Amino acid sequence: MSDIASRVKAIIVEKLGVDEGEVTPEASFTNDLGADSLDTVELIMEFEKEFNVAIPDDQAETISTVGQAITYLEKNVK
Amino acid sequence: MELKRVVVTGLGALTPIGKTVPEYWEGLVNGVSGAAPMTRFDTEKFKTKFACEVKNFVAEDYLEKKEARKLDPFVQYALVSTEEAVKDAGLDFTKLNTNRIGVIWGAGIGGLKTFLDEIMTFAKGDGTPRLNPFFIPKMIIDIAPGHISMKYGLRGPNFSCVSACASSTNALIDAYTYIKLGRADMIVSGGSEAILNEAGIGGFNAMHALSTRNDDPKTASRPFDKDRDGFVAGEGAGTIILEELEHAKARGAKIYAEIVGGGMSADANHITAPHPEGLGAKLVMQSALDDAGMKTTDIDYINVHGTSTPLGDISETTAIVNLFGEHAYKLNISSTKSMTGHLLGAAGAIESIACILAIQNGIIPPTINHFTDDPAIDQKLNLTFNKAQKRDIKVALSNTFGFGGHNASVIFKKYED
C-alpha cells in the first residue's frame, strides 16, 4: 500500500469512526461507510490539509469512494 | 377551552457538584462547592483562574466517539442529562405518539468552543475560508433540541429559547404553556451551557462580572455576603420532562411535582446592570403568581437568581421584600449558585430541579459561604445560610434573570390529585 493510501485510510477511519477493514478501495463514503453530505465535505477538506493540495469543487464531486480519493491524490500530490 | 394540568415526570442533571440527579441533590443538601482551579485551558493570563467545571467529563463515556466529535460540549451535556431524564421517566417512545412530544431547550450562548476553535483556525490561515462543514450546525443554539429529537424520534414542537441566564426558565415556561394549551402531550425541556474556555472566561472577565477570588475558589460564590465579588462561571445541563397530567396517569408515571405558573418580564433598564429597585424582578414574580392564580402567601421557598454579584443580590432581595411584604420573612430563600456556580442558560433548569427535589424531600438546600452580613441586604430574610433546613414545602418559585434585562420565574407545587 502506498504512503498516500495509508494516510487516506487513516483519515477515513478517524473521521468516520469506521474499522480499518471496512475501508476498501471500492467502499463508497456514503453508501458503505455511513458518511452524510457534511462528512464528505469534511473528508475532502482533511485530504486537502493532509496533502497540502486544493481540490476544486467540480473535482471533489467525482470522489465518492476510497479508491477514487487515493487515485486522485496520487495523481495530484507532488 | 379546557386548560390541561402539567406535571414533572422525569429529571436529569449533569452539574459541577454531581453528574446525576441523586449526586446533584446530595451535593446540594450537603453544601458542596463545585468550584476548583480551571483545568480546561491555561489561565495564566486570565484574571479568573477557576470555575465550576463538570468534573472528569469524558464524552465517550456517554456517546459514541464518532457522534461526540460532531457535538459541541453544550450539546453533549444536553444529551447526557436528557438520557438520564428519559430513563428516569420510564419512557418507551415506541409506545407513545411521538408527533405529540416536543423538545424546548434553553442555552444562553451555545457552541462557543466550536466558534472559538473554528475562528482561531481561520485566523491562522491565509484568509481562505476553510471552515469545517460542521462549524455552523455544531455551534447554533437550536441544534441541542434538534439532536435530542433525532436521538429519540420526537416530532412535536422543537426549538430553543435564548434569554441569557433566563433561557432554560423561558424554555420551561414555553413547554408548560404548550402542554397546558393542548398543543403537546409531553415536552423534554431544560437547558445546557458550556462556556468554560478562553472566550467565555475572557469575555465575562472583561465585564468585571466574575469573582477573582483565586486564592480560595470554593468560597468565591457567596451570594448575599458582604464580600461577594462576582459570579463563578459554571457549566452543565438539566433536563425536566413535562407531561400532561392525564397522559402521565395513563402510563402510570411517577409524578415529582406540578408546574403551575410561569412569569416573564423585562427590566428595560441596562444591558447588564439590574434595575436598582428590582422592578423587573418584582414584576416577573408577580407575573408568575398571576399565571398560577396564587397569592404571595402561597409561596414557601424561593430559589433566587442570587449570582453573588454586588448589585444583583441587592436588587433581587429588595424586590422580594417589596412584593411579599411581611410574608417575605416567612419564606425560605436560597441561592444554590453558591454551590454550583452560575450555569448561565442552564441555571433555570438545574435550579428548577432543586425546587422540585426540595418539595419532594422537604429540605431547603442552603446558600453556602456566608461569612459577613451585608447591611444592604435585609437581614430579617431567611436566606438559608450555610446549612440545609427542613421544611414542608408546598410551593416553590425559581427566579432567573439574564443580561439584556430578561426575567423569567417558574412555580412548582407539590402534586395533589
UniProtKB/TrEMBL annotation, chain A:
Domain (Carrier) ranges: 2-77
Key words of the record: Cytoplasm, Fatty acid biosynthesis, Fatty acid metabolism, Lipid biosynthesis, Lipid metabolism, Phosphopantetheine, Phosphoprotein
Compartments where found: Cytoplasm
Pfam families: PP-binding (PF00550)
Pathway stated in the Swiss-Prot or TrEMBL entry: Lipid metabolism; fatty acid biosynthesis
Keyword Oxidoreductase belongs to the record: no
Modification note: 4'-phosphopantetheine is transferred from CoA to a specific serine of apo-ACP by AcpS. This modification is essential for activity because fatty acids are bound in thioester linkage to the sulfhydryl of the prosthetic group.
GO molecular function terms listed in the Swiss-Prot or TrEMBL record: acyl binding; acyl carrier activity
Keyword Phosphoprotein (UniProt): yes
GO BP terms, alphabetized: lipid A biosynthetic process
Residues the record lists as O-(pantetheine 4'-phosphoryl)serine modifications: 37
Top-level taxon in the UniProt lineage: Bacteria
Gene3D superfamilies given in the database record: ACP-like
InterPro entries given in the database record: ACP, ACP-like_sf, PP-bd_ACP, Ppantetheine_attach_site
HAMAP family: Acyl_carrier (MF_01217)
Family statement drawn from the similarity comment of this UniProt entry: Belongs to the acyl carrier protein (ACP) family.
PANTHER family registered for this protein in UniProt: ACYL CARRIER PROTEIN (PTHR20863), CARRIER DOMAIN-CONTAINING PROTEIN (PTHR20863:SF76)
Record function comment: Carrier of the growing fatty acid chain in fatty acid biosynthesis.
Name this protein carries in UniProt: Acyl carrier protein
